[in-house]
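COURSE: Structural Biology Practicum
ASSIGNMENT: Worksheet 4, Part C
STUDENT ID: 0417
INSTRUCTIONS: Below are two proteins. For each, the amino acid sequence is given first, followed by its C-alpha cell string. Answer the questions at the end about the second protein only.

PROTEIN I
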Amino acid sequence: MSMTIRPEFEQVLEPLSDIRTERSLPLAQRLWQQAIVRKAAIVALLAALWEVAARITDNDLLLPTFSQTTRAFGADLLSGELIGKAGISVALLLQGYLLGAALAFLLTALAVSTRFGRDLLSTLTSMFNPLPAIALLPLALLWFGLGKLSLIFVLVHSVLWPLALATYAGFQGVPETLRMGGRNYGLRGLRYVVLILVPSALPAILSGLRIGWAFAWRTLIAAELFFGASSGKGGLGWYIFQNRNELYTDKVFAGLISVVLIGLLVETLVFDSLERVTVRRWGTQR
C-alpha cells in the first residue's frame, strides 16, 4: 500500500503591527475599560436625572436640586458639622461591629467543634436571624436606658447572625483532605479552626463581614433616626432627623449622601482591598 506524502506548506502570519493592542485603542475606549470611569458615568447620569426631576417638580421642600444639595453638603462639610456627626456614627458602629464579629466567630468555632454547638447555632439563627434589629430597640432602651449600650446591642444583633451563618457555611465547604491533614498534624479545637478552617473559608467569611457591615450601617442610621442623640451627641441619623423637623430638605439629602459615601468608601477601601490582597491574590476567588 503506497502512502502519499503531503506537501509542506508555509503559513504566513500577520505582522504584530497589525494587531490592536490596548495602547493602540483610542483614549476614550481605554478610559471606558476602567471600572471607576464607568461607575462615575453612572453616578453622573443619576445626578443629571435628579437635577432634571427637581427642576420639573420646582418644589425645594419636596425635592431640592442636586446643585442645591451639593452646596448644603459642602457648607456643612467645611463647617465640620457633617464630619463630627459621621465620626460619632462610625465610632459607635465599630464598637458594635467588632463585638458582633467576635461573638459570631466564637459561636461558629463552637459549632464546628461540638455537636451541641451546631445545635445551638442552628437554633439561635433560626430564631433571631429573621428578627429585624430595629425591632429590638424598644427593648434595648428599656434594658439599657438612653445611652450607647442600647445602640450597640442592636448593632451586635444585626452583625452576629448573618456573619455566623456565612462563616459556618464556609467552614462546611472546607475540603475533607484539608480537614484530615489538620487532624494528622494534631490540630484540635481553636488551633484547628484558626489554622485550617479560617484560611480555607476566607471568601465566605469576607462575604459575611461585608453583609454584616451593610446590615449594621443601615441599622445604626435607622436607630439614630428613631432613638435620637446618645448622651447628648447624635450621629448622621440624628442630623437627618433634625433637619427634617426644621424642613431643611437639602440638608436631609446631604446627610443621605454622607451615608452613601461612607458606605462606598468602606466597601472600596476596606473590603475590596482586603479581598484583593487575600482571596483574589491566592486564586480562591475571581
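PROTEIN II
(use this one for the questions)
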Amino acid sequence: MSERDPALMGITEMARESGVSVSDLRNWEARYGVPRPERSKSGRRLYSMSDKETVIRVLALRDAGLSLTGAINQTRKAGPFGEGGGTGDVSLFATLRRSNPDLSVHVLDKRTLLALTRAIEDCCFAAAQRPILLGAFQDQRYYRASRSRWRDMARSSLCAITFATSSAASQSTNDETGEPIVNISISAGSPLSREWALICDGVERPACVVGWERPGQEARPDPARVFETLWSVDPSVVRQASRVAWSIAARHQPDVRGIDDILAERTVPAARMDALHVTELLGRTLEYLATAA
C-alpha cells in the first residue's frame, strides 16, 4: 500500500485515535506482535483501520477485567470479523468515550434517550442536507417500531444503515420507498447489542448520541431502562462515530464499503458548538418529553 494511502495513519495519529500512548504501542508490538503496522520506505510505522480496531478491542477487554496478555490472546482467537468465534465488533460508546475524554457521560432512562434521539433526527432533517444516517436499535423489534419513520428519513438520506440483533433479520433490505435501508444483523455477543445509537452525519447540523445499557435491568419496565449516554454536535466527533459504525457494517456486509469515498468528499467542518443548534436540539427534546408525559 502507498504511504499516501488515506486508510493508513502514523503512530502519533494512531495513539490519538486509539487512546494508547506511542510508547505503549511500540511495547505491544515488540512484546506481543499486536498491532502489526506496515512500514514505509523510510521505516515509519503505518497503521490501518484494522490495527485501530484491534487495539480498541484489546482495551475493551481490559476494561472488562482481563489482563493485557489475556485481552490480546482473546483478540487473536477472535480473528477477523465473524471468524474464530468472535464478533469482531467494537463498542461505539467505548470508542467515543476513550477518544473524546472531554465528552460528558449522562445517565438517562430510555424515555429521555428516545426523546433526544427523535430531536436529533428532526434537527438533522430540517436542514435538508441528505445526511449519512446510522442507527443501533439493540433488538430488531425496536427497529420495527420505528421503521415507518426510518423509511421517511431514508428518502432524504444519502444512505441509511441499522444494527439490531435478530436471528431472522435480513442482511439487506430495500424499502418500498426505493431508498435502501441496510439492516445489519448483529449477534447477542456483539458490544452493539447493549447499545442504542443514532448518527446523523450531515453537512449542516451533524449530531450523534450513543447510549450503553447498564447490565442487570431485566426486571425494569422498558421505558425505565437506564443508559450511560454520550452526545455531541461536534462535526469531528460525529464523523468519528460514523466511521466506526461504517467499519462495523462493512465487515458484516462488504458491499457497503463505498462509504470511504462518500466521507472523503465531505470535508469535516472546523469543530464548533453551535449555540442555536444546541438550543433547538434541547427544545425539541423537551417537547418530546412533555408529549410523552
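ANSWER KEY EXCERPT:
Q1: The chain has eleven helices and ten strands.
Q2: The beta strands are 38-39, 45-46, 106-109, 132-139, 159-165, 173-174, 180-186, 195-201, 207-213, 226-232.
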